[in-house]
């Protein structure tokens, strides 16, 4: 039995002792944590104290509770999936994306009408409450089981200028980009990535462990005069995926030599 003799609430002392065992490798990554009864015997404390300690470690992200299986030490391995964020264009004008064939749609796309928020309005350079077409997809990588939430947002004014977009707002992004180029736009893209804690519906849909952030990617397609045309969002668990980019140098005009 390990003697608990530290300042602070008793459950915090137990949590600190378990944390040390995890960080030292005694409790290995991805291995089951000892049962409640074993932890009670090891530290000489009550069941509520052990449960509070486990809850604290779950909140820290050190422990993952798997329903029906118990508590496990969070894995420190490599992400299950690398998502490449490149866009290529074929000789016949089609767009392709490296992970385009990887994802399977878990259900039918959901199309709807919505309005810009402060965040989406800023990306599209529109005021709040401007009308948008939205399309949501739930994607699954069949090899790893990684789930992702995908969303496309198209302003009404863009869809009106490209009629097929208004008739088929559920088109996949590569088809949306093809239609925009057919309309005369020379496209380029900007993208931001941020980590944040998930909303309850995101946590449930993505089946995230406790205390797991998501990666929220927002890609904006720009057209004529650099005008933002479409937003493409992707949300995926930060414990499951990493994001990879190909970076090339921008061309700059040569500086004139001073006489």
Considering the chains and any ligands shown, give keywords for the structure.
259 residues; alpha+beta; 8 helices; Arc Repressor Mutant, subunit A; 29% strand; Chorismate lyase; two-stranded antiparallel ribbon; GntR family transcriptional regulator
Considering DSSP H and I runs of 4 or more, what fraction of the residues is helical?
25-40%
Helical stretch tally: 8
Give the overall average pLDDT: 88
Overall geometry? elongated
N- and C-termini, Cα separation: 82 Å
Q: Which CATH class of the largest domain is shown?
A: Alpha Beta
Q: Which percent band covers the strand fraction?
A: 25-35%
Look at the structure and name the CATH superfamily of the largest domain: Chorismate lyase-like
Domains (count)? 2
CA gyration radius, whole angstroms: 24 Å
Task: Return the structural class.
Answer: alpha+beta
Biggest sheet details: 7 strands, antiparallel
SSE run = HHHEEEEEEEHEEHHHEHEEE
Which architecture of the largest domain per CATH? 3-Layer(aba) Sandwich
CATH topology name of the largest domain: Chorismate lyase
Tally of DSSP β-strands: 13
Which residues sit in consecutive blocks of at least 5 with pLDDT less than 50?
none
Domain HTH gntR-type: 8-76
Protein name: GntR family transcriptional regulator
Keywords: DNA-binding, Transcription, Transcription regulation
InterPro entries: Bact_HTH_transcr_reg, Chorismate_lyase_/UTRA_dom_sf, Tscrpt_reg_HTH_GntR, UTRA, WH-like_DNA-bd_sf, WH_DNA-bd_sf
